[in-house]
């Protein structure tokens, strides 16, 4: 696995356990404004289609704000259809196989699904979109664009854990038995990459102890909500945008970014069978504009420099989703779960 770094103080540890230390994740590209490059012809064609549908697993508050900004910019409403990554993929595949075409844009954190769907022709090339040429090379491929980074965090209820947490190793402290909630590794590949990272860094016994402490949630949104409500003390892997939304409502949450971590990236693709293909192109191009980047990545992490209110990335680990998928039975066994 590959390590991307924004801080060097853990390099010795990573070398000691045999991990590859790579160059820092580059957040150095600046965009002069994809919006200025969007053609009037595309805007007119999108307006003629009237509306669009976005399938997404991204935080609902963020998506509502993006949809409002898009409609304000172009006068085109989009219907946001949100579900967990696994449920969204199942729905999309079922609809595609039954020739029931609804989605125009697929915008999720499921890197493996984007790779698979790009490879089998269900997603179109994005290389001709406005803003693509200037977008950072490490944040794009032929059929997908990384719109934002989501480094996984450690989240806790400050009333139940007043001393706070600083390390992934806090998750296996016996005093938190039954009070640690995790994303269910049987749900999807992205969370399994998190557990594979633990196995690589800390070994099998860490996962066994983690399983002894854990309860499970189908996704981060309801899980972090339970921690905010005091039903559980700790959540991992945390999603910062979810925590921010709850903090804005006064939830008693603390958050840390132990290193290394992995990033569950927000990835956008064009659906090959889109009923509104021009709306799809316009929407994904809009996601690359500074305006949309500020909304998508508020108090978060943008692939480009100069976006107001964004953060510096913590050290991250790149875990291959195909290798992870092959290792799932072992991960579940170590955590004490049945497939």
TrEMBL record:
Keywords: Signal. InterPro entries: TAT_signal. It holds the Pfam family SBP_bac_11. It comes from the Bacteria. This is Iron(III) transport system substrate-binding protein. It comes from Devosia enhydra.
């Amino acid at each position: 696995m590959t390590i991307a770094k924004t801080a060097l103080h853990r390099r010795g540890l990573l070398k000691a356990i045999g991990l590859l230390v790579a160059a820092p994740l580059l957040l150095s590209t600046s965009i002069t404004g994809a919006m200025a490059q969007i053609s009037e012809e595309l805007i007119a064609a999108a307006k003629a289609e009237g509306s669009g549908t976005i399938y997404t697993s991204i935080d609902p508050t963020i998506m509502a704000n993006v949809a409002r900004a898009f409609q304000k910019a172009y006068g085109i409403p989009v219907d946001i259809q949100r579900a967990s990554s696994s449920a969204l993929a199942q729905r999309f595949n079922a609809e595609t196989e039954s020739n029931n075409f609804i989605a125009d844009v697929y915008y999720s954190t499921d890197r493996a699904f984007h790779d698979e769907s790009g490879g089998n022709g269900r997603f179109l090339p994005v290389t001709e979109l406005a803003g693509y040429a200037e977008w950072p090379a490490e944040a794009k491929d032929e059929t997908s664009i990384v719109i934002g980074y989501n480094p996984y965090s450690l989240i806790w209820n400050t009333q139940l854990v007043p001393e706070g947490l600083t390390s992934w190793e806090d998750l296996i402290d016996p005093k938190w038995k039954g009070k640690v909630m995790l994303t269910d590794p049987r749900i999807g590949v992205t969370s399994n990459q998190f557990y594979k990272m633990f196995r690589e860094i800390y070994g099998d016994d860490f996962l066994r102890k983690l399983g002894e402490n854990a309860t499970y949630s189908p996704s981060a949104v309801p899980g972090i909500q339970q921690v905010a409500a005091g039903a559980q003390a700790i959540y991992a892997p945390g999603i910062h945008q979810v925590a921010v939304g709850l903090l804005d409502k006064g939830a008693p949450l603390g958050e840390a970014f132990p290193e290394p971590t992995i990033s569950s990236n927000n990835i956008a693709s064009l659906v090959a069978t889109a009923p509104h293909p021009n709306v799809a192109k316009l929407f994904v191009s809009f996601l690359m504009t500074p305006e949309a980047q500020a909304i998508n990545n508020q108090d978060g992490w943008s692939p480009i420099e100069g976006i107001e209110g964004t953060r510096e990335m913590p050290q991250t680990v790149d875990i291959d989703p195909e290798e992870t998928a092959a290792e799932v039975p072992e991960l579940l066994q170590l955590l004490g779960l049945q497939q």
